[in-house]
Amino acid sequence: MGQPSPFSDAARTWAAVAHLAPLLGYFVLIGQILLPLAVLLWGPKDPLVQAHAKESLNGQISYTLYGLALWLLALTVVGLVLAVPLALGLVLLVLWNMVHGALAAGRGEAYAYRLILRLVP
């Protein structure tokens, strides 16, 4: 394969958790944002963990805002006809980025979510 990652197994695990923890967080109102934030604030201060936690946090904030916008559009302008396919597309985008982010973290590589706002530098 390639060269071994210079990051420890623990750092790569924490970085992957930053991407996958929001899956559990979706069962709580804003848990999908709080879990990557918790990894960022209280997780290891390893550069890999911090970078992946910030990316996941930016993604979850962005996707939450997009979801709220879709919900408002469904209530007002486009109705359910367009909102349902758009919501399904958003769900697939979120899952795609979370899985690929976790896989990249496991390899010790950087990953950039698609179509997000970079609110946390």
Strand content: under 5%
Helical amount: over 70%
Sheet of most strands: none
**Low-confidence spans: pLDDT under 50, at least 5 residues?**
none
Round the Cα radius of gyration to an integer and report it: 15 Å
Spatial separation of the terminal alpha carbons: 32 Å
What oligomeric state do the depicted chains represent?
Answer: single chain
Number of discrete helical segments: 4
Q: Output mean pLDDT.
A: 88
DSSP summary, beta strand count? 0
Q: Give helix and strand order, one letter per element, not per position.
A: HHHH
What sort of overall outline do the alpha carbons produce when their principal axes are compared?
elongated
Q: Specify the structural class.
A: mainly alpha
Please give a structural write-up.
- Helix content is 73%, strand content 0%.
- By secondary structure, it is mainly alpha-helical.
- Helix 1 (9-25) packs antiparallel against helix 4 (79-107).
- It is elongated.
List strands and helices in order, with pairings:
Layout: H1 9-25, H2 31-42, H3 47-76, H4 79-107
Helix pairs in contact: 1-2, 1-3, 1-4, 2-3, 3-4
